[in-house]
Specification:
single chain; two-stranded antiparallel sheet; globular; binds zinc ion
Length: 79
């Protein structure tokens, strides 16, 4: 049996639950928006070191606004 689950926060494939290990704290709860946003911006900055911070932050907001964990988050209301 194959599973077809993705983390509801970042989209990474996972085997069970709702979120991957990177998006949760040590108790298994989803981290807050600012923590995840900062981590995803840093990750994207490493992948595309020539892109501006503003571009990456805009792209990250756009990406997160499509994720079930964040799409109704008030911080994304104006994205
Ligand atoms: Zn995740």
């Amino acid at each position: 049996m194959t599973t077809d689950l993705n983390c509801e926060s970042c989209g990474m494939p996972i085997e069970s639950g709702h979120y991957c290990q990177f998006c949760t704290d040590e108790r298994g709860f989803l981290q807050d928006f600012d923590t995840r946003f900062a981590a995803m911006v840093d990750w994207q900055q490493r992948r595309t070191p020539d892109a501006s911070r503003e571009t990456i932050e805009a792209e990250t907001r756009s990406y997160m606004s499509g994720m079930p964990a964040w799409r109704n988050h008030p911080r994304l209301a104006n994205a």
